[in-house]
Write a structure and sequence with these properties.
By secondary structure, the protein is of the alpha+beta class. The chain has 2 helices and 2 strands. It has a two-stranded antiparallel ribbon with strand order 1-2. The chain is flat, with a radius of gyration of 22 Å.
């Protein structure tokens, strides 16, 4: 299966823009152990996404709500 951008050069800014537009989940796990005895296990998950698309959706919904209100 070929990669989507195989053989193409893409700017880091463009790549970050595409990733943030769709969002990305970063997950990891850390285990601290001594003498093969697990003492602490930490699971990490982070969602990284741009808030701009959500804000635009919110503004559009707000405009639709105002348009559907009856004048008083």
């Amino acid at each position: 299966m070929p990669y989507a951008f195989e053989g193409q050069q893409i700017a880091l800014v463009d790549l970050l823009d595409r990733v943030l537009a769709g969002g990305v989940v970063i997950a990891g796990e850390i285990t601290l152990s001594i003498a093969d005895v697990d003492l602490v296990r930490i699971s990490l998950r982070a969602l990284v996404a741009s808030i701009r698309p959500g804000m635009e959706y919110s503004r559009a919904t707000e405009r639709e709500a105002r348009a559907s209100e009856r004048p008083r």
